[in-house]
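Quarterly update from the structural biology core.
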Amino acid sequence: MELVLPKPEKTVSFTTAYNRLFKLLKQYGHCMGFSFLEKKEKMKNPEGNNHSDPVSEFILLGFPCTWEAQIFLFSLFSVIYVLTLTGNLCIICSVWWDHHLHTPMYILLANFSFLEMWYVTSTVPSMLANFLSETKTISFSGCFLQFYFFFSMGTTETFILSAMAFDRYLAICRPLHYPTVMTVQRCIRMGACCWVCGFSCFLLPVYLISQLPFCGPNTIDHFLCDPGPLMKLSCVPAPATEIICATFNSVLIFSTFLFITSSYTLVIRAVLRVPSAEGQHKAFSTCGSHLAVVSLFYGSIMVMYVSPTAGNPAGIQKIVTLFYSVMTPLFNPLIYSLRNKEMKEALRKLFRSVIFGQRKPLKN
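Predicted structure, tokenized:
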């Protein structure tokens, strides 16, 4: 009896066999938890340009906790938001109402309070809506709009704080030249320049990050669209963009901070030369409020944005961002009203005029 051997089949190339195997694994692999399939897809399409489902919205995790805790946080931040708007609005109305405060120092202060109102409005309303939302989603364009306005107003704040420091330097170190150099018209132009520069500077970082490929996941472990968590969601590593943003933040923060500290170093030297203790106390009390605000603001943003964002855990990012974006605007009216006698007197006049129904600006 002869042994009949089967005829050899047509040979199959290694590439064809590999593709057939991968097709089977792709079809049934998700049921078995094959995570390497996602890596394979990313290897085939590293740039994410041909991804069928690009990210159209993001999920802001915010503060994940129980529903009762969400309601408590919603109530707490609602009260903080109302108090922040009320306090800063009182400063603006006091400066507008009292003609004695129509000076460059208080015009810049009113400008700063107006900025703080919009600064906190760029984050808190969306955060409050996020507490009550089940999906916690934000559109792609809405995320980058929040990113742009929040950081543009933060940049404007650094410029206005620098302008306020320059004003105090001129008032104390160059008192004879102050009335001619720092006029009301020049102060208004300086404030307008701060706004224009602040909203122009952050166009480049927003553009660079918005051009990164986002193909999933789309969950941001934050309560706002921050550049660090956004860059982590990119389909491809973006070290160049991260370095550019870190360098941009460092130059902006340190240049304005050094300008402010240099101004106040000269102010302190001039104050120490004043022979009377009463004169020194008056000069220090004038600058103390501004220094307190500068310390709160710059101390928190340096922790966040001077170093590359990958080194900051999500919990620290949330706490620090919450402090300088929500708590600092709440503290600013208290700091300026409690430490400044002229502002306290103007607030008393404002409250009396509101209570007794007087509508004309107070001249006395």
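The chain has a mean pLDDT of 79.
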